[in-house]
Specification:
This protein is an alpha/beta fold. It folds into 3 domains: 2-150, Beta-Lactamase (2-Layer Sandwich); 257-491, 3-Layer(aba) Sandwich (Rossmann fold); 501-707, Rossmann fold, CATH 3.40.50. Helix content is 51%, strand content 17%. The protein has a 10-stranded mixed beta sheet, with helices on both faces. It has a 6-stranded parallel beta sheet with strand order 20-19-18-21-22-23, with helices on both faces. It has a 5-stranded antiparallel beta sheet with strand order 2-1-5-4-3. Helix 5 packs antiparallel against helix 6 and helix 6 (240-250) crosses helix 7 (283-295). The longest helix has 58 residues, at 2-59. The protein is rod-shaped, with a radius of gyration of 46 Å. The protein binds 6-O-phosphono-beta-D-fructofuranose (F6P). 6-O-phosphono-beta-D-fructofuranose is lined by residues 261-262, 282-284, 398, 422-423, 534, 571-572, 634.
Length: 744
């Protein structure tokens, strides 16, 4: 209806412009024509009266002349008549204007006409030379009131206006009817295409002459339909295969580029000169690596290993996984200065403590931020260099790249940019202390889709947008329109691969227990708790040690019967806050071991070194319980890995309420890590929990992790990206269709 009204409106507008342009010309044309008509009448009057007037002038018969002139002026259009000669005006009729003088009118020997004005009216004076046989010469002057001609002009203009307006409305109505018919055919054709796509039949073809892009519309609709089927078929069982199938159905031919700071494979040189391969302790890597293996494509990351440069090709690329390559790792080199400013400074002394409520004060240095910006630019260059198409799907990872989405959007406007923020997003008030808040929001809003782990983080982000930038927020759609471009804000709880690769080749649980006990010199009957993570102050490592102190104080019966193995991978050790944490944790472990231990018993075994995934899984399998006591955590994949590692369905997870994972793993023993005493009680409860209860809890949690695995996480984001691309394509096609229909 809108488009039809628009057609009619446009026709009316065009008609109005034509009317306004034509009317003045038409009026002046009619006026000139009327004036010529009056001149003709004057000449007729003169020709018919000339001989009689000449004869009466010859006779000097004033009475007859006056009577004759009065008779002539009885025609209402002749205003006055008189005779001009050397004596001036003679025999003027009564309506002769006061202001008339013979000098004005009768100056030449030829017939002449002039317009004079009196009393706001125009008068046409026609002067005709008249020679009398007596030799007397002069002019017969005939005056016509021109208001008649003007009246005619006005009338003509009014009639013309009415006529043109009528034609304009007629044309507008006709244009609307034509538009309506064209639109009806166009919509019928789209409906037919939708119906054909829905039923999967070929059906009658749409009118391609009318809609030259009809075929394309049909293709897109068919894709949408197949996408619906893919989602229906795959939503309960996400695996590398379903992810691959979804990708090839939905995004076939698309190019996927992943960008993260941490690389999935690090090549290091040992002291002996050998090159070893390290898989970093990173939740991000644990989640994304299997996804990228399934999708293929390119992963761009910082090459941080000491042998990384030796293992790349001339284009800084290396095919990975090294034993069975499935995708390309493109390494970006950063100088020490760049790492200090961008990674240690802005990202890990600024944004990390800003986003985690762990009571470590963020440090914001302008020089760090400049470096952060420069490194984001460097990665944007790498994305543009690696992109083979103008519309790649770019998966931007984490708080290291808040500015990257905007930079990519500026250079590849047709890219689909899906950004995932792996850490919590603080409330708007907390975020407001960041001096770079507007730039960060602007950068992130370069994304097509921006994902967080939880709805609460999405809400915090929307609140920050609301508070600090001018934009349009749609709370129903959870989207932000900023600078004319829309970004969808969505929760995508991250997860792990299912089944985990690290589980392959694991020995049965009793053997794992035995192996761990032997390796660590523990007695065969000792109960084991584990905590495994990077040595980060957000993880609550010190707090959990204090809980063990409480446990052994409140329940001394566990002394000699329970050991807690804390694996902490060194991380960000350049930063004072991390070094202090390590010192504090080492001192506390020592203190607790002295307080509750003996020569043969250590309650806490603190292992400060990196463990490969298979070693981590062995530890999980050896444990009676696992403690994840994060003070604040976006998700925490250690919790999910522990659950996944326990295919024997035994073991207890003690989980912080402040880790995103607690929203999904509600069958864990949920604790407040700030309450050491209660956490100690939870450990005691875990150690006493019956195998049946353990099984019941673990089964539910394993179902949850199995179903909501990382393929689902990635699949949902990629399907959202695919839907977005299709919607944008349909929008482009419909626009083109409208243009085609308008031109038809
Ligand atoms: O939680 C955010 C995160 O990027 C995780 O994905 C990962 O575990 C960690 O930080 C990585 O830390 P880094 O790369 O600094 O060692």
């Amino acid at each position: 209806m809108k488009i039809i009204l628009r057609f009619g409106g446009i026709a009316l507008l065009v008609a109005a412009i034509v009317i306004l342009a034509v009317l003045p010309f038409a009026t002046s044309f009619v006026e000139q024509w009327s004036r010529r008509d009056v001149e003709l009448r004057s000449r007729l009057v003169f020709n018919s009266a000339r001989d009689q007037v000449a004869s009466l002038l010859q006779k000097n018969d004033a009475a007859s002349l006056t009577a004759l002139f009065d008779r002539i002026t009885s025609d209402e259009r002749v205003l006055a008549i008189g005779y001009c000669d050397a004596n001036g005006l003679s025999y003027p009729t009564k309506n002769m204007p006061q202001s008339f003088s013979c000098e004005q009118a009768a100056r030449s020997n030829a017939e002449a006409s002039a317009t004079i004005s009196e009393d706001n009216r125009n008068i046409l004076v026609s002067a005709f030379p008249l020679k009398v046989s007596s030799g007397r010469t002069g002019h017969l002057v005939i005056l016509h009131d021109l208001s008649y001609a003007e009246q005619r002009g006005w009338e003509a203009r009014n009639y013309l206006f009415l006529a043109l307006t009528g034609v304009a409305f007629g044309a507008a109505a006709l244009a609307s009817v034509i538009a309506m018919l064209v639109m009806r055919r166009w919509l019928a054709s789209i409906r037919l295409a939708i119906e054909n796509a829905r039923t999967g039949t070929a059906g009658a073809p749409a009118d391609d002459e009318l809609i030259p892009i009809g075929q394309e519309i049909r293709d897109v609709l068919r894709e949408l339909e197949s996408s619906r089927r893919t989602i229906d078929a795959a939503h309960t069982d996400w695996s590398p295969e379903t992810l691959r199938a979804a990708l090839s159905n939905e995004l076939s031919g698309s190019e996927v580029i992943v960008v993260s700071n941490r690389e999935p494979y690090i090549h290091n040189k040992t002291e002996s000169g050998d090159i070893t391969l390290q898989i970093p302790a990173s939740g991000l890597v644990a989640a994304l690596e299997p996804v990228t293996r399934a999708c293929g494509g390119t992963w761009i990351a910082h090459g941080s290993g000491s042998a990384d440069r030796e293992t790349v090709d001339p284009y800084d690329r290396v095919a990975v996984p090294p034993d069975h390559p499935l995708y390309t790792l493109r390494r970006v080199w950063l100088s020490e200065e760049e790492q200090d400013g961008y990674y240690y400074g802005a990202a890990n002394e600024g944004l990390w403590p800003l986003c985690h409520i762990a009571f470590v004060r963020p440090t914001f240095r302008e020089s760090d931020w400049r470096m952060y910006r420069a490194v984001n630019e460097k990665f944007a260059d790498a994305v543009v260099a690696e992109a083979k198409r103008e519309d790649p799907i770019v998966l931007v990872q984490d708080y290291h790249f808040a500015l990257l989405p905007r930079m990519i959007r500026d250079r590849l406007p047709r890219a689909t940019i899906v950004t995932f923020w792996h850490i919590p997003w603080p409330n708007a008030e907390t975020f407001g202390i960041c001096p770079w808040r507007e730039e960060i929001i602007d950068g992130l809003l370069g994304s097509s889709i921006l994902g967080f782990h939880t709805q609460a983080h999405c809400n915090h982000f929307l609140d920050a947008v609301d508070a600090y930038v001018e934009s349009r927020i749609d709370r129903e759609k959870d989207s932000v329109t900023f600078g004319g471009q829309e970004t969808l804000i969505r929760p995508y709880p991250i997860s792990i691969e299912w089944p985990p690769t690290a589980l392959e080749g694991q020995k049965p649980v009793p053997e794992c227990r035995l192996a761990v006990r032997r390796r660590l010199g523990l007695p065969d009957d000792i109960r084991i708790g584990v905590g495994i993570e990077r040595f980060d102050y957000t993880k609550g490592i010190v707090d959990r040690m204090q809980a063990i102190d409480f446990l052994l104080t409140d329940h001394p019966e566990w002394k000699g019967r329970f050991t807690f193995i804390q694996v902490a991978a060194p991380t960000r050790s350049k930063l004072a806050s991390y070094r202090q944490l390590q010192d504090e944790a080492e001192a506390l472990a020592k203190e607790i071991n002295q307080k509750h231990g003996s020569d043969t018993y250590e309650p806490i075994k603190l292992l400060i070194r990196h463990h490969q995934p298979d070693q981590v899984f062995e530890l999980f399998r050896a444990a009676d319980l696992c403690i994840v006591s994060s003070l604040h955590d976006g998700m925490n994949l250690v919790a999910k890995e522990f659950v996944a590692a326990r295919d024997d369905e035994e073991g207890v997870l003690i989980l912080s309420a402040f880790a995103g994972a607690s929203r999904e793993l509600s069958e864990a023993l949920i604790v407040n890590p700030y309450n050491g005493h209660a956490m100690g009680q939870a450990i005691d409860r875990a150690l006493r929990m019956s195998p049946n209860e353990q099984r019941e809890r673990l089964r539910l949690m394993r179902d949850q992790v199995r179903e909501r695995n990382v393929y689902r996480w990635a699949g949902q984001m990629l399907l959202a990206a695919s839907r977005l691309r299709k919607r944008q394509r349909i929008r482009r096609l419909i626009k083109a269709g409208r243009r085609a229909a308008a031109n038809a």
